[in-house]
């Protein structure tokens, strides 16, 4: 078996027999120990159709995470060649129901049906993605019939769509959060009293009442309450501009300060009108003495700079649930290796590490109370809202509804013609979603690359994907995944356990030649699994 063992900054390779299948040379990814701070001790291709994940501690959320698109599987040979260059960003090879045909920069992405797909094939041949940052622009195109479905609908247009016989309203039930971020490595945000003053100085109720549709709510915690333990602990600060100004003065800013509000001008479920929202926040900050310049940024640059913790002012961002577990919200944003809010806060990330290993929701509750209270105390950001959301499609489109978790899978949709055109909110940053976190990229990736497990269309429950299932040992420290046989990638190569090891290794091991990606941050791998061999912080 080809074995990749981490020794400092180098890889040592040896060959061993699997015993179970002498003709199969399986690879493995093994950390020398778990002192690197991550969750995975080893990933082994134990035979052609079996992969075993050995964890550093119990990981009850393993299945939910393994179904997320960022952990999509590509051929090991493809990763060893194209994956070592930026060509991987525009050349995905997957096992999914569609394959990339063309990316016409600035205009569209064209996918073609994968006629060799192992599962239920798409009823139509061509899937086209276009984009518009304007909710009104998307709706106009839908009404005119130039597109068949849109990603996001402005709250002001919900009733109009519901009353239009040519259209269908599509509610989106996935939990989400809008927040105002700050980076604590920049002044004055390195002062916790300044951050606490901001927490009290934002009228979040006014924002929800004026800019979000019925059914939206003010965020009492960062994680929506529909996620177990999401609302454990104390509720967020109430609006108190007098106290906010007093605390700013106590922090040394009696006259306030000047800064910026960064945002990407992309229409999102959690942020329907970004420029309007930025101006509203600007006005509210002005009332407590803070002069904030509104500063829009290009989408890809904004995401990259925010993730790296390089934004020196406020920024508007949000989150939609990828999978139904609190680790998706908290570990991604506040874990030890997360750079978005600046220096990590031990009072938060140590509780998260403990909580992530507890399977029983009731047993985990005190730990998440501790974590949520620490988030409230240290204010890395201000949670604003959990939005009700919706999109729309032409009336003739069948099965257009969204699933509760995971990006929409368009092979289950039937437009009643050979081509379906979808309009989303922005152009994808890349099509290698191991190193992307924007919804526009992951929506397209979902059509092309598949994961070990998947989310059910109706319930959002974890179901089989490229693996028929993954089973845990008694204490959830080892997960064994049984792979489907006879599956092929769209380049004609056969899918096996080595492809799983290679795909995870490309994301987890920073010394791996294929650990290139777009920015090299691999945020989901870092926050949800941990990076092996990561350089000292």
Mind summarizing the main beta sheet? Answer: 7 strands, mixed
CATH topology of the largest domain: Dipeptide-binding Protein, domain 3
Based on CA inertia axes, which overall geometry fits?
Answer: globular
Integer average pLDDT:
93
Short description:
With 537 residues, this protein is an alpha+beta fold. The chain is built from 15 helices and 22 strands.
Description:
The protein is α+β, with helices and mostly antiparallel strands. It has three domains: 2-86 and 450-528, no CATH class; 94-173 and 389-448, 3-Layer(aba) Sandwich (D-Maltodextrin-Binding Protein, domain 2); 183-378, Dipeptide-binding Protein, domain 3. The chain contains 15 helices and 22 strands. The strands form four sheets. A seven-stranded mixed β-sheet has the order 2-1-3-4-5-22-21, with helices on one face. Strands 6-7-8-18-9-17-10 form a seven-stranded mixed β-sheet, with helices on both faces. A hairpin with a 5-residue loop joins strand 21 (467-472) and strand 22. Helix 5 runs antiparallel to helix 7, helix 10 runs antiparallel to helix 11 and helix 11 (346-355) runs antiparallel to helix 12. Residues 1-22 have low confidence and may be disordered.
């Amino acid at each position: 078996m080809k074995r990749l063992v981490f020794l400092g900054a180098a890889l040592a390779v040896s060959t061993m027999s699997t015993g179970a299948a002498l003709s199969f040379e399986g690879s493995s990814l093994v950390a020398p120990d778990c002192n690197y701070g991550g969750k995975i001790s080893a990933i082994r291709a134990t035979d052609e159709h079996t992969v075993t994940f050995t964890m550093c501690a119990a990981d009850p959320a393993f299945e939910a995470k393994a179904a997320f698109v960022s952990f999509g599987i590509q051929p090991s040979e493809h990763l060893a060649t194209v994956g070592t260059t930026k060509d991987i960003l525009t050349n995905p090879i997957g096992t999914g129901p569609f394959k990339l045909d063309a990316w016409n920069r600035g205009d569209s992405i064209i996918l073609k049906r994968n006629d060799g797909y192992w599962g239920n094939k798409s009823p139509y041949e061509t899937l086209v993605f276009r984009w518009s940052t304007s909710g009104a622009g998307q709706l106009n195109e839908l009404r005119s019939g130039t597109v068949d479905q849109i990603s996001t609908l402005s709250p002001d247009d919900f009733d109009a769509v519901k009353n239009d016989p040519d259209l269908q309203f599509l509610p989106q039930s996935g939990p989400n959060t809008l927040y105002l971020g700050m980076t604590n490595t920049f002044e004055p945000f390195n002062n916790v009293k300044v951050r606490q003053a901001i927490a009290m100085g934002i009228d979040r109720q006014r924002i929800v009442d004026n800019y979000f549709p019925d059914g939206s709510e003010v965020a009492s915690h960062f994680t929506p309450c529909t996620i177990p333990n999401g609302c454990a602990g104390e509720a967020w600060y109430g609006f108190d501009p007098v106290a906010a100004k007093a605390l700013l003065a106590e922090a040394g800013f009696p006259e306030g300060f000047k800064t910026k509000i960064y945002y990407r001008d992309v229409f999102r479920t959690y942020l329907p009108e970004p420029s309007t929202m930025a101006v509203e926040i600007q006005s509210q900050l002005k009332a407590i003495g803070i002069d904030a310049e509104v500063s829009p940024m290009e989408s890809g640059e904004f995401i990259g700079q925010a993730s790296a913790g390089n934004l020196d002012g406020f920024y508007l961002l949000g989150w939609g649930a990828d999978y139904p577990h609190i680790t998706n919200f908290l570990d991604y944003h506040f874990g030890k290796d997360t750079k978005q809010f600046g220096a990590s806060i031990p009072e938060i990330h140590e509780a998260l590490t403990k909580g992530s290993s507890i399977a029983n929701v009731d047993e985990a509750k005190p730990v998440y109370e501790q974590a949520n209270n620490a988030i409230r105390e240290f204010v890395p950001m201000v949670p604003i809202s959990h939005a009700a959301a919706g999109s729309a499609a032409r009336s003739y489109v069948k099965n257009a509804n969204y699933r509760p978790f995971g990006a929409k899978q368009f092979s289950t949709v039937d437009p009643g013609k050979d081509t379906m055109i979808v309009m989303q909110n922005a152009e994808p940053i890349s099509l290698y979603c191991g190193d992307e976190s924007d919804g526009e990229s992951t929506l397209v990736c979902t059509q092309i690359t598949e994961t070990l497990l998947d989310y059910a269309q109706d319930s959002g429950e974890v179901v089989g994907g490229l693996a028929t299932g993954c089973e845990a040992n008694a204490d959830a420290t080892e997960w064994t995944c049984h792979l489907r046989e006879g599956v092929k990638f769209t380049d004609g190569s056969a899918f096996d356990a080595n492809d799983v090891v290679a795909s995870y290794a490309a994301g987890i091991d920073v010394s791996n030649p294929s650990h290139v990606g777009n920015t090299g941050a691999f945020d989901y791998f870092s926050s949800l699994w941990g990076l092996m061999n990561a350089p000292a912080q």
